[in-house]
């Protein structure tokens, strides 16, 4: 097999997977939750490592404690202490400050989120300690514990790209391209293959929107989260198994019984004399293929939409992120179509190539499943 057009993308996925695995293995052990002193004389501050606003707040509070010996500051490290993290989540929901941010200050039953500098935020902290501060996000800047405006888009694209390395869909597209290239017509090849990619993306968007609405309806309980993680681990394990024992035992691939029907549909695409008829036929093919390969692709969209609903985004933002996911999902297909149209060449997905794709996607799926079960906060 020759898989040269996809080697660069495969290496990028492997690098992303290595980073995810390093995070999973190298996470520090949680520290024991400290019991704060009397709340009437204590300022509890929820912080996390690497937050510049938390560092500024600590510097300010160090001086404040010297000025007020009766004040005790208790820091809760939400990135290392699961109990502190859950406390902050509950607190943020209670006061309507969602998504949660750090630093968050709590004193006298009141809550203040964010810190800019001593001049602008210091008076708000003093008012909180005195019992006159507000209980909402009222000051400065907060470092969000949810994905940042940069982090969530990158996570979305990475998940879509990983999902796109699916040997089921890739096999059909490469087979289609191998027949289209015989026409030696770049325009027809681009339009027909491009329609296949676009229709596949549209069907997948509808499929993910259904997952999204299910999770929005039922909510995300701990039982459901652990169940999704277990399913992801199982799907990933089957795909990794296929790298070593391809086609033996349980396998998530296009059934052999479905392949003759797919071959027949592809030939109808090629035999259509009029271009609009060929494009309509290939759109029907894309819909059929997406339903046939449903088990191959169920894991990534289920996990991603489950993560997405936890970000408490407006409805339009949810669907905007689904579109961004689809951009990543079809990126590898679009690249293969572009290469085929420019070079009028084609590649075949052999068993060896399919094994490697299954290994990459399976290992990524297992890592995500483990994170969802053991470290769900990393995905929020």
Could you state the order of secondary-structure elements as H and E? HEHEHEEEHEHHHHHHHHHH
Radius of gyration: 26 Å
According to DSSP, the number of beta strands is 6
Low-confidence stretches: 1-10, 12-40, 140-150
Approximate helicity band: 55-70%
Helix segment tally: 14
- Beta percentage is 5-15%
Terminal Cα span: 40 Å
Mean pLDDT over all positions: 76
Summarize the biggest pleated sheet. 4 strands, mixed
State the shape: elongated
Order of adjacent strands in the largest pleated sheet: 2-1-4-5
**Class based on secondary structure composition and strand pairing:** alpha+beta
Task: Supply database-style keywords.
single chain, 380 residues, alpha+beta, four-stranded mixed beta sheet, 14 helices, disordered N terminus
């Amino acid at each position: 097999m020759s898989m040269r057009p996809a080697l660069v993308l495969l290496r990028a996925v492997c690098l992303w997977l290595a980073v995810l695995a390093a995070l999973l293995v190298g996470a520090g052990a949680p520290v024991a939750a400290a019991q704060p002193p009397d709340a009437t004389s204590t300022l509890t501050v929820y912080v996390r490592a690497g937050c510049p606003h938390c560092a500024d707040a600590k510097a300010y509070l160090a001086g404040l404690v010297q000025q007020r010996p009766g004040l005790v500051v208790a820091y809760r490290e939400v990135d290392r202490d699961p109990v502190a993290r859950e406390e902050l989540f509950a607190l943020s929901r209670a006061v309507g400050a969602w998504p949660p941010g750090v630093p968050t200050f709590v004193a006298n039953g009141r809550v203040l989120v964010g810190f800019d500098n001593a001049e602008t935020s210091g008076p708000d902290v003093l008012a909180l300690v005195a019992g006159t501060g507000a209980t909402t996000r009222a000051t400065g800047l907060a470092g969000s514990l949810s994905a940042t405006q940069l982090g969530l888009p990158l996570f979305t694209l990475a998940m879509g790209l990983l999902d796109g390395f699916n040997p089921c869909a890739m096999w059909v597209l490469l087979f289609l391209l191998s027949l289209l290239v015989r026409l030696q017509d770049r325009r027809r090849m681009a339009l027909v293959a491009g329609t296949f990619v676009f229709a596949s993306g549209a069907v997948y968007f509808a499929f993910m929107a259904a997952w999204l609405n299910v999770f929005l309806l039922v909510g995300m309980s701990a039982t459901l989260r652990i169940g999704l993680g277990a399913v992801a681990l199982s799907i990933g394990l089957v795909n990794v198994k296929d790298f070593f024992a391809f086609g033996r035992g349980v396998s998530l691939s296009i059934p052999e019984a479905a392949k003759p029907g797919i071959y027949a549909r592809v030939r109808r695409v090629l035999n259509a004399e009029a271009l609009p008829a060929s494009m309509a036929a290939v759109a029907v093919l894309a819909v059929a293929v997406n339903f046939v390969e449903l088990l191959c692709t169920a894991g990534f969209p289920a996990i991603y939409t489950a993560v997405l609903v936890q970000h408490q985004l407006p409805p339009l933002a949810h669907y905007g992120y689904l579109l961004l996911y689809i951009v990543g999902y079809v990126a590898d297909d679009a690249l293969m179509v572009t290469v085929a149209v420019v070079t009028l060449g084609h590649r075949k997905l052999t068993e060896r190539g399919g094994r490697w794709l299954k290994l990459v996607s399976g290992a990524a799926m297992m890592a995500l499943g483990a994170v969802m079960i053991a470290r769900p906060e990393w995905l929020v």
